[in-house]
Amino acid sequence: MMKKNHNFGWWIAGLLLLALPATFTACEKQEQEKQEEGVKAKPVLHIEEDLFLLNSEEQELFIRFTVENPIEGVKAEWRCSASWIEEIKAETSSLLFRVEANPGKERSTTLRLYYADADLVPIKITQAAAGEQVGPTIRVEQGSYNLAATEEDISIGYTILNPTEGSSLKASTPADWVHVYAVEEETISMLIDANLDEPRSTTLTLSYPGASNVQVSLHQAGNEEPDPQPEAPTFSNLSASAISASTATLSCRFDYAGSETIHEAGFCYRGPSGNEQEAKVTLSTGNKSVTLSNLESDSDYDWYFYAVIGEELYTSDTKRFHTEAEAKPIEGKVHRTTWPELCVEDESNSDYYYAHHITDVTMGGNKARNYTVCFSAKHHCPVWVAAPRHDAYEGSTNRTDAYKQDPQIPSNLQYNSKSTGGGCNKGHMLGSAERTASSTTNKQVFYYSNIAPQYSSGFNTGGGGWNTLEDWIDKKVCSDTTYLVIGTYFEKYTDGYGVSASPKKIEFGGRSDVSCPTMFYVAVLRTKKGNTGKSVIKCAKNELMCAAFVRTHSNEHKGQKVTSREMMSIADLEKLTGHQFFVNVPNAPKESFTASEWGL
Q: Per-residue pLDDT tens for 54-67?
């Protein structure tokens, strides 16, 4: 909790009797009380530097951080929209990035560091234009100091970004009551004389060759008895939730036991425009919340809770949230915009044929979809199968083994028998056990368009690599609908375990020209909580999780448990395969994944 002594133009006229200077004072009482009561403290993320000014050439960027009150097994994560910054290595307390050479104008981005429910930390990165070097810059830990009237020995922290060899910082002030006696690396030491008179102020000017001067304000109290402080309110449980591209819900617990009148209370927030806005709440104490709308997308917003009590304005600590990016319009044809699992259908690719299968099972008054398949005429094999997973698709129907050609795809492109070959058996993309709600539902997954050749000795067999992955995916299916895209790949591929496979043709299904897949993948999208009852299409990005699980088609994966080494982001899978996944879900977090959210 902080008490702000300054005058806003938008306060009710005459409400504040005193126009006081802009001063923020941190209050740690609430956190101390929590620790005394044995409540586990919230994690706090600290970084050594939050601003990097880089030269134009290719280089490595090293970011160090620490976590106060860490949670066992939880790692820090980062997000950055800039394609010219690439992670090289992530450690427990540091991140190493490669920054590409800048071929054009000066460019900037913001890298955001996350850790559990700690407040995110933004890091500003600016790279000079092509061929240019960055000059020195002075940064101070604090721009203003409020000093007691008594004699004090104080230190001011500073940093020189891009220092020049042989240069040093100088500190000067016109005040005869401030004595700078040491300027050391990153620290300025001063003796402040006692003040026996009225309050006084001065500036300390910092200069460094090639850098702009920086001034630090020093304010010393006068030699007078302070007015008794009124009882202060407390603000707790500050949180920002349900964040979308244009909305966010702010919450705070407001408590006050004093006798002064509460004149006003609410939330203040400030976005990219820099204009501070308010959202008022009722004047009673307790849990308070507001939902903000018309926010700018992909933007940082600072906010706090305030209360005007008596003649004082009190505020909480300032928090920050980041709105999501605007969803990009879907590029290309999509069969149904209400089916979250669908990929874009590439009409320009004459190799691809599509089929959309509907079951005889009724859900919500309509016959439910079973799956959508993209089938390759060139490979005579499914390319991807997109399907929802939910308990409603599972029942008591036995496996039908009704292998036959898909009636929606030209028969001359498909297998013409259920025979096998090439060391492979008939591998379902969407499994039979996942569609037992009716006989018709199960028969449809035995269409050849849903069957791919899979090695029978160590991949599609008991304990095989594919069966192990399928069993693991089954455990991630939640009470909310889970959406899957099961796919094949036909180019040379090496997975996260170092296992490789190369393209080849085999005899399979009565044909001699079937491509044997080099890799299989499962792309998964679901809610994080798993029991929200909400459509993923209407969820905010922080409510969703998605990732791809990829294994080379090889018998070497028999007995291999699922690990994070076979995970990749959906965005990376899109780059690899050329397909667009989950295009009907604008907030799907396709750019990144968190292995721990999947239990890995």
A: 888 999 888 989 99
